[in-house]
């Protein structure tokens, strides 16, 4: 059985690859080729540390995965997110490879936001606000940059040093002007697109600060206690798209709370698999909420393996 490191994967598997493979996965999902079991989320008692276990099968390409990823937000000298995925082929059940999945997790989430942004954001969207510059934020930015001609990027992070480091890193991937903001309000008031990638337990921007036409990608919160998007924005949204309804109903904290208050209904959402086959952009406030699902990991794991083995 082969093993592939994050570094080896990163050499050959890029955002364009992930966007393509996620799109093909959504076709299989629409054709009922995916068998996905509910993921298990275990929080380490007395800490903010979490471990996730995610299984999935693709009948069409005859692969399955079991992914585990740990999220330890206080890590300093090692990554906050660390993952490994076991890849199995379904001809005879052979376990053919393990792939480190920290990079793949970031990349597939960025690719999902790329697809959502491409179908939901205004075609002329040119400004991006990034709230939170942690582990998921870089690939989220790459996803937006892959589908829109961004001229201005506004960064906000509670720790200014991390914002400076993120800016220096992002400058290697874009010619857009990058501004570090002192508040999230300052960042979002300019934005046609807003990326939120935090582990916040309260909304990271205020509804009154955003434009009347804006697309929001919320990918950071994945526990019922977490919040990124305020309820007023959820109420005002013209279109809400989620990556996985069942997962979101259990893990998307701000939406769970909004439904409890009678201000939102999960029955009103669209799914990423539905909008990915359409061509029209939506108007007004649009939201893409991602909590993750194993079939997205399966798509990029198989895609990366196919490039690595050749």
UniProtKB/TrEMBL annotation:
<dbReference type="InterPro" id="IPR036291">
    <property type="entry name" value="NAD(P)-bd_dom_sf"/>
</dbReference>
<protein>
    <submittedName>
        <fullName>Ornithine cyclodeaminase family protein</fullName>
    </submittedName>
</protein>
<dbReference type="InterPro" id="IPR023401">
    <property type="entry name" value="ODC_N"/>
</dbReference>
<dbReference type="Pfam" id="PF02423">
    <property type="entry name" value="OCD_Mu_crystall"/>
</dbReference>
<dbReference type="InterPro" id="IPR003462">
    <property type="entry name" value="ODC_Mu_crystall"/>
</dbReference>
<dbReference type="GO" id="GO:0005737">
    <property type="term" value="C:cytoplasm"/>
</dbReference>
């Amino acid at each position: 059985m082969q093993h592939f490191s994050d570094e080896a994967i990163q050499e050959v598997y890029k955002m364009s690859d992930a966007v393509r493979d996620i799109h093909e996965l959504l076709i299989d999902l629409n054709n009922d080729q995916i068998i996905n079991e509910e993921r298990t989320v275990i929080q380490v008692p007395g800490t903010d540390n979490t471990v996730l276990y995610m299984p999935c099968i693709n009948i069409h390409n005859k692969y399955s995965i079991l992914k585990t990823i740990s999220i330890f937000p206080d890590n300093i000298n090692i990554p906050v997110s660390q993952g490994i995925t076991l890849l199995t082929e379904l001809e005879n059940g052979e376990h053919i490879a393990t792939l480190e999945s920290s990079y793949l997790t970031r990349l597939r989430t960025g690719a999902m936001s790329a697809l959502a942004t491409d179908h939901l954001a205004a075609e002329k969207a040119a400004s991006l606000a990034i709230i939170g510059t942690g582990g998921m934020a870089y690939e989220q930015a790459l996803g937006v940059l892959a589908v829109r001609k961004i001229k201005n990027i506004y960064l906000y992070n509670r720790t200014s040093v991390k914002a400076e480091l993120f800016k220096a890193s992002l400058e290697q991937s874009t010619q857009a002007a990058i501004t570090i903001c002192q508040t999230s309000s300052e960042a979002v008031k300019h934005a046609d697109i807003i990326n939120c990638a935090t582990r916040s337990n309260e909304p990271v921007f205020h509804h009154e600060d955003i434009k009347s036409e804006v697309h929001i990608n919320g990918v950071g919160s994945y526990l019922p206690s977490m919040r990124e998007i305020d309820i007023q924005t959820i109420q005002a949204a013209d279109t809400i798209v989620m990556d996985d309804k069942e997962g979101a109903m259990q893990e998307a904290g701000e939406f769970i709370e909004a439904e409890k208050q009678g201000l939102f209904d999960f029955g009103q959402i669209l799914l990423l698999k539905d909008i990915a086959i359409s061509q029209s952009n939506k108007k007004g406030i649009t939201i893409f909420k991602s909590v993750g699902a194993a079939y997205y990991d399966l798509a990029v794991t198989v895609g990366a393996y196919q490039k690595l083995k050749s």
